[in-house]
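Pilot study result, target chain (200 residues):
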Amino acid sequence: MKILFVCTGNTCRSPMAEALARHLLAEYGVEPRSRGIFTWEGIPASPEAVEVLRRRGIDLSAHRAAQLRPEDVAWADVVLAMTAAHREALLAAFPEAREKIWTFAEWVSEVSGRDLGGDIEDPAGKGIEAYEATAARLEELLHALADAFSSGKLGVAAVSGNGPDGDAQNASEADAPARGAEALSGGTAEEGRPDGDAHA
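Predicted structure:
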């Protein structure tokens, strides 16, 4: 299964999710990637993200941020946003892929049959403790996903892709180019700045 994790800057949440998924879900044939919807291409993961994964025996130092492109969405079996706001931006930009666009927590809740909460908040600028909490939250979701794989629960949502929030998922494809351009380029320079506080 090809899983694409998406956040804002691709320097904190989504690369942490990608690396942790590669570490925790390898036995289930999962191929993870991560991208940002508004990022500076080529900047490294935040030092805090690198550190909290180093504590878990995972090396994130080689990661470089990458901007989300249509071919990434086409590649993925499921596209997992860190927040509902990210999901809505993705739905606006890629209405043709609406059946496979979810938030991470929504999708894992669906396939595991457990209520696993909502958004994964941005830890940028909040100190190492916030990054530890983010890593623990990602691990919680990934362990639930591993349980779904091992128990055979995973399948229906992943294959049918009946994504949440039907009104948003029925976005008009005719308006997609304009809305998508606005959604994926509508961040500020501050949000994606490569100074360690870039949102991810």
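One observation from the pilot: Confidence is low (pLDDT under 50) at residues 156-162, 164-183, 185-198. A full batch analysis is planned for the follow-on phase.
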